[in-house]
Amino acid sequence: MTTVYQQPGLSRRELLKRGAIGAALIIAGRAVISPDRAWGLEATSLKPDTVATLIRMARDTYPHDRLPDRFYAIAIKGHDTKSAEDEAYKALIEDGVADLDKRAGSVGYRGLGWEEERVAILRDIQDSKFFQTVRGDLVVSLYNQKEVWPFFGYEGEAFSKGGYIERGFDDIEWL
Amino acid sequence: MATQYQQDDDSVVVIIGSGAGGGTLGNELAQKGIDVVILEAGSRIEFEDFINDEWDAFAQLSWLDNRTTGGGWRITKDFPNLPAWIVKAVGGTTIHWAGASLRFHEHEFKALTTYGKIDGANLLDWPITLADLEPYYAKAEDKMGVTRTNDIAGLPGNNNFKVFKAGADKLGYKECHTGRMAINSAERDGRNACQQTGFCFQGCKWGAKWSTLYTEIPKGEETGKLEVRPNSHVVKIEHDVSGKVTGVVYADKDGNLHEQKARVVCVAGNSIESPRLLLNSASTMFPDGLANSSGQVGKNYMRHTTGSVYGVFEKPVHMYRGTTMAGIITDEARHDPSRGFAGGYELETLSLGLPFMAAFLDPGGWGRTFASAMDSYDHMAGMWIVGEDMPQEQNAIKLHAELKDQYGMPIPDVWFTDHANDEAMRNHAYKQGMALYEAVGATRTFPTPPYPSTHNLGTNRMSEKAEDGVVNKWGQTHDIKNLFVSDGSQFTTGAAVNPTLTIVALAIRQADYIAQEMAAGNI
Ligand SMILES: Cc1cc2nc3c(=O)[nH]c(=O)nc-3n(C[C@H](O)[C@H](O)[C@H](O)COP(=O)(O)OP(=O)(O)OC[C@H]3O[C@@H](n4cnc5c(N)ncnc54)[C@H](O)[C@@H]3O)c2cc1C
Ligand code: SF4
Q: Which of A141, B94, B198, B253 is the most buried (most CB within 10 A)?
C-alpha cells in the first residue's frame, strides 16, 4: 500500500477560500488584508500598497496555484522588517515597486489582470538588484516554510518518527 | 578527560583539520602510540545535535567564511561566495557526505599514459598504482564498514533507487545496485543500522553512516594519544632557518592567537583551505608559500564533472525517503574515447529536500516553468553525475588581493572553468540520465547544473618529480621533509569515483610512513 503523507486539511471552508485566490487584497490603514479576511499583515515601514504589490509579485515569481496568499505574505514580510532598520534597503524596495507600477501604466502592477502581463514586466527587470533581492530571498522564505511542505508532498523532519524504514521508503507500486 | 598537550611540546604531530583525511590520520597515528594534536577550525557537534532540516543544518555545519569565485563556471553567477559546500566542524565533510565508497580503477592512476596529452589539461600519472593502494583500500573498507565488501550486505533500495534501477534495466545497463556505501546495513562497530531517514547530507543522527566524528576521533582519543582541539583555526605554519616546519599559529574561538609547536605538521583542511594555508605561510625563505617550489600549490583544482538529472513521473516517487545516494550505475565509468571524451563517469541516485530543490534545481530560475517543476516534487526521481574532470593549471585557489578574513589573512579566490572534455562528458551524462528516466515514463526531465563543489581535489598534487607537483607518493611535501598533506588536495587526478575512500586509504598508508620515518629519526 502506498503510504499517504499528511495532506493539508481541505475543509469546505478551505476549498471556498481557494476560490478567492487572485482576488484583490484589501488595504485598510497600515494593514494588508486578504479578501476573505482570513489574515492580515501590518506594514510597519513599507507602504501597505508596496506590501500588497510584493505579495502579488511573489506569487507571479513562484506561482503555485494551490498555495494560499498568506504563505506569500509570510514570505515577503522580511522586507518590511529589514526596511525598518535600513533606509537604503527600504529605498531599494519602495523604488523597485514604484518602478513596477510605472511600467504597468495607469492601473499599476496589481491592476494588470493577466499574469502574463505582469510577468512580462518582471522579465524586463529580472537582472535588476531589486528583482534579484526579492527573488533570492523568496526562494528560501517561501519554500523553507514548514507549513507549505505538505502542499508539495515533502514530509520534512523524519528522525523523531524513526526514519522511513517502516514508513514507506520503498513503497513504490507503479513500476 | 581526554589527553591535553602543551603548546610548547615540540614532540607532537600536528594535524590541521579533522575530516576524512585528518581524522583518519590522527587515529591511525595514535593507535601506533604517536602523540597527536588535531587542530580543527570548527566546533564539536555530536550526532544527537544534528538537525533534520536543510537550511538549519547548513547554518549549523557549513564552512561559511568568506570566499570569492572567478572563471567560467556558473557558480560565479549563482553562488559567488559559496564555491564549495563543505563542513567546518569536528569530523569535517564526513558529516555531510553521502557515504559512496568506491575504489579507483587501475587506469585512473595513469591518466596521462591512458588518455594521452589533452590540450589545455595538465594531466599527470600518479606516482602510485592501484596495487600499491589495494591493501589500504581493504583496510579503509573494513574500517568504514562499506557495504558489498567484507561480507557486508548491500542497503535495501528505496523508491528513488527503484525508479533508477528500472531505467537502468530498460537502457541495458548491467552494473546497477545500491552502491558500496559506508552506511551500516546492519549494526556494526557499535553503530546503528540505517533507518532510511533521508538526511544523510545533514549529518546522520543515527550514526549509521561513517564519519570521523564518531568513529576515528573517539577511537584515537581512547588511546590517550590524541587531542582534538576544536575552534582552533590555523592561520600560518612556521619554519626554522633550516627550512623545517616547527609549529603552527592558530586562532582560538575568541580570535586570540596561539602557537602550537610540532615535530611534524600534516595539512588536511580540504582542497581550498590546505593550499590557502601553504600560500599564506609565505616567508622570506619561501616567498611563494610553503612547499611551492614547483609553483603548483593551489593549481589544478578539480571538482568532478557533475550535474544532476531529475525526472517527473505521473505517479508519486517520494525520492527523499531513505538513503540519499544508495544507488549506482557504473557502466559509463570506463575510458572509451568513442563517446567523445576521455575518462568516464558514474550515475548515482540523489535526492534533495524541498528547500534545497528550490535553491538548486535551476538557480535563478522563476516563473511557471520553475514553479510547475516544484509542484511535481513528490513525483520526482533524481540522480547525480560524478565524472573525472581534467586538471587545468588555471583552475586554482588563489589568495585574494584585497579581502581578508577575521584574522587578517587573505581569503581564497576559487577559479574554475570547465574543460571541453568536462563539457562533452556532462552532456553525454545528461543525455543518458534523461533517456533513463524517459524509459520509465518520465513526462519531464531536468538537466540540473552542478551545485557548489562537494568534491574538492588536486590543489597540492602528488607527483613523482618535484617540479610537477607538491607532494611525493607518501603525501610528504617535496620541499619540506616534516610537512605533509593528508587530504583530497593530494589527488593527481580525480578519477570517476567519489573521493573519500581514497582519501582514507591514503591517510592509513601515510600513517605507516610517518611512523616509520619518525622511528628512523628521519623526521
Ligand atoms: C553533500 C556532500 C556529499 C558527499 N558525498 C560523498 C560521497 O558519497 N562519497 C565520497 O567519497 N565523498 C563524498 N563527499 C566528499 C567528501 O565529504 C570529501 O571529499 C571529504 O570529506 C574530504 O576530506 P578532506 O579530509 O579533504 O576534508 P574535510 O573532510 O572537509 O575536512 C577538512 C577539515 O579541516 C578543517 N579546516 C580547514 N581549514 C582549517 C584551518 N586552517 N585550521 C583548522 N582546521 C581547518 C575544516 O573545518 C574541516 O573540518 C561529499 C561531500 C558533500 C559536501
Ligand atoms: S538514511 Fe541512513 S545513513 Fe542516511 S541519515 Fe538516515 S540513517 Fe543515516
A: B94
Residue A1 lies in a domain: no
CA A67, A73, A79, A81 dihedral sign is negative
Q: Is A98 on the interface with B (CB under 8 A)?
A: no
- Residue B83: count of CB within 10 angstroms of its CB: 27
Q: Is the pLDDT of residue A4 over 60?
A: no
Write down the pTM of the prediction: 0.95
Q: Flag whether A162 is in a domain.
A: yes
Asked whether residue B50 is assigned to any structural domain, the reply reads no
Q: Choose among B347, B350, B346, B344: nearest CA to B310.
A: B350
In a domain, B116, yes or no: yes
For residue A69, tell me if it sits in a domain.
yes
DSSP-assigned letter for residue B136:
H
3-state secondary structure of B308: strand
Residues facing A40 on adjacent strands: A33
Distance CA B319, CA B307 (A): 17
A65 Cα to the center of ligand 1, angstroms: 41
Whole-number pLDDT of residue B443: 98
User: Could you tell me if residue A72 is inside a domain?
Assistant: yes
Domain hosting residue A64, numbered range: 12-167
Q: Is the CB of A163 under 6 A from ligand 2?
A: yes
Q: What is the DSSP string of B39-69?
A: E-SSB---GGG--SSHHHHHHHHB--S--EE
Given a contact cutoff of 8 angstroms between Cβ atoms, the answer to whether B100 and B325 are in contact is yes
Can you give the residue range of the structural domain that contains B312? Answer: 13-44+56-82+91-519
Q: What is the mean pLDDT of chain B?
A: 98
Does the residue B450 lie in any domain? yes
Task: Check CB contact under 8 Å for A170 and B162.
Answer: yes
**Ligand 1 in reach of B85 Cβ (< 6 A):** yes
Is B57 near ligand 2, meaning CB less than 6 Å away?
no
Tell me, yes or no, whether B251 lies in a domain: yes
Q: Do A170 and B375 touch (CB under 8 A)?
A: no
Determine if ligand 2 sits within 6 Å of the CB of residue B81. Answer: no
Asked if A144 and B321 come within 8 Å (Cβ–Cβ), the reply is no
Give contacts of B353 with chain A, Cβ < 8 Å: 154, 156
Query: Which CATH number belongs to the domain containing residue B215 in this structure?
Result: 3.50.50.60
Q: What is the DSSP letter of B495?
A: T
Give the count of domains, chain B. Answer: 1
Q: Tell me how far apart the alpha carbons of residues B518 and B511 are, in angstroms, rounded to a whole number.
A: 10
Please state the domain count of chain A. 1
Contacts A157 to B, Cβ<8 Å: 52-53
> How do residues B191-239 score in pLDDT, each as one tens digit?
999 999 999 999 999 999 999 999 999 999 999 999 999 999 999 999 9
**B123 pLDDT above the threshold of 60:** yes
- Residue closest by Cα to atom 2 of ligand 2: B194
Residue B232's pLDDT is 98
Alpha helices in B389-496 (DSSP H): 420-439
